[in-house]
Amino acid sequence: MQSLQEKASEWSGVAASDAFAIDETNLFQALGGLQPFVDLSTNFYNRVYADEDEWFRSIFAGSRKEDAIQNQYEFFVQRMGGPPLYSQRKGNWRVFFLGIFDFCPTH
């Protein structure tokens, strides 16, 4: 049986070694620091919150645009080799994603 990584490589045409090269490169420094990530996140969420389709905008209705922008750029900065802005403010991002499943009732 193929692993998820093998399937992703097959479907995308990108070798796993190339995909994981991000771990060997400091994109935060290579792209010039914080501002490109702020700009990218701001541009993305400006488009999301201005989208014509109500069903799409409703996905983000529970969060303020400014918060979404900050969460995204801080996460990207941290993942791309910059300072741990996201973890300093929100805690370990892996714990956050595990917490998504806390809504399940316990026995």
From TrEMBL:
SUPFAM superfamilies, A to Z: Globin-like
Gene Ontology terms for molecular function: heme binding; metal ion binding; oxygen binding; oxygen carrier activity
Which Pfam families does the entry mention? Bac_globin
- Domain of life per record: Eukaryota
* Keywords per UniProt: Heme, Iron, Metal-binding, Oxygen transport, Transport
Q: Does the keyword Transport apply?
A: yes
| Record carries keyword Cell division | no
> To which protein family does this belong?
Belongs to the truncated hemoglobin family. Group II subfamily.
What name does this protein carry? Two-on-two hemoglobin-3 isoform X2
Task: Give the species.
Answer: Iris pallida (Sweet iris)
